[in-house]
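Standup notes, structure subgroup. Blocker cleared on the copper (II) ion input:
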Amino acid sequence: MTRRLTAAFLVAIAAVVVATAARAADPKEIPITIENNRFSPEEIKVKAGEPFVLVVTNKDKAPEEFESKDLRIEKVVPAGKTMKIRVRALKPGTYPFVGEYHEKTAKGRIIAE
Ligand SMILES: [Cu+2]
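Run returned:
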C-alpha cells in the first residue's frame, strides 16, 4: 500500500467507526402513562431533529389508541400493557396527540424545540 492509499484507508475506517457509534446511540426513551383516560404527562418536550421513542404504559382496564394525525401514528395500547412507539426526528413545532377511544379527556402534545 502506498502512503496515500494508507491514508485513504484510515479515513474510510474512521468514517465507519463514526457511523457505527452514531447508530449505537439509541434514541431517547420518553415514558408516558395513560390512567383514568388521561395522559401523564400531557406535555412532552423533545429536541427537534432527534428521533425518540415513546414508551406508553396503559394503566387503565380498557385499551387505548395513541393517535397523532400530525405524526401519522396510530397504535393500540392494550389494558395494562406498555408499547414502544418510535417517532421520527421532528421539525420545531407542536404536535398534538389523543387517546382516540377517550378523545375528550386523553389529550396531549409533543413540543419539539
Ligand atoms: Cu385511530
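Discussed briefly. Residues 19 and 25 are 10 Å apart (CA to CA).
Next: hand off to the docking folks.
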